[in-house]
Specification:
globular, five-stranded mixed β-sheet, Nucleotidyltransferase, domain 5, binds zinc ion, alpha/beta
Length: 373
Amino acid sequence: MQLVMRAIIESQYPVSRADVATATGLARATVSSLVDSLVSANLLMELPPVTTGSAGRPAIPLQLAPRSIVGIGLEINPDFLGYAVIDLSGDVIDEGIERGSFINSDPVATMRQAGVLIRDVIAELQDQAIRVAGLRLAMPGLVNSKTGFLEVAPNLGWKHVDVAELLGITDVPVLAENEAKLAAFAELKESGRKDFLWASPEVGIGGAIVSDGRVYSGQNGWNSEIGHIVVDPSGPPCSCGARGCLEQYAGRVAITKAAGLPEGTSLVDLIEVLKAGDPVALAAMDAAGRAFGAALADWVNLMGIFTLVIGGPCRDLLGWGVDAMRTSVHERVLAAPFTDITIVKSVTEENSAMKGAALAVLDEVLAQPAAWI
Ligand SMILES: [Zn+2]
């Protein structure tokens, strides 16, 4: 059944039962019976028959069924909480954002607010007879990838929190994961790139390693904390308790401060100041780019992955920092003379973590379709 689903997912266009038999090497009758089960369970849908021109019955193209099973992604970050609902066909069928300041927020109150929001979303889906496969929480911190327990989220000011439990949703499976890894998963699905290092600068700077088409989780998901790579051991104190971490140079709050702008300046306003050519802001971006490049160079030297994808809302700042970043990377990566090092903006847009979270839920459905029949 997995083979059949994979053949349908991997095809660029809707395929027929005969196409699936050819692609998988399975007998036509076997494919037909598996497809029939998947159609009756509403995982697949049949499109109107297409006459091929040759003799025989017209082919019935198959595709993943829309609005039958969905995954929900929920993201909590310093500036907003938001959700995305994605169906098997890949359509975002619902999404929403509640803006607020969640820096040093109370985890119980914040998760309760998120729980209220999500309960309404689930009720609405259930009214439409849409099945919810699960909910994935995208959290900006160290999350145990096996248990979903949040150890620390420095920019929320949270420590040792069972976020899934606090959400209070009991009728669908809930698991938390690191937000940058989920954003990188969305990028992997959308861009088709199979090997890249992901960095998403915001107040903090998330990271993920994508190698051979998989997001690397290490022993328990605690890795790729690029925001806490040391740029200067005697630098300013960081939210993590150490000094001189990258996010103190290239995080949004740090850039705003270095640009001489008031605390709380929005990203849009920062970009306006840069567009106007303000020399202090431009110098701040140059310094941020150099620091970012130095940290990325360490990462490239360690991993041997030469594509760097910058995502998240602050990727729009890349236009002002990328030259300094590139110079810094090239100065420090040992292999630089022998290979191209690519630094690009993500193809996914902002809020990709919540979408990646929903896609991660669906990925599990597609890996085990029999569980949904
Ligand atoms: Zn730090």
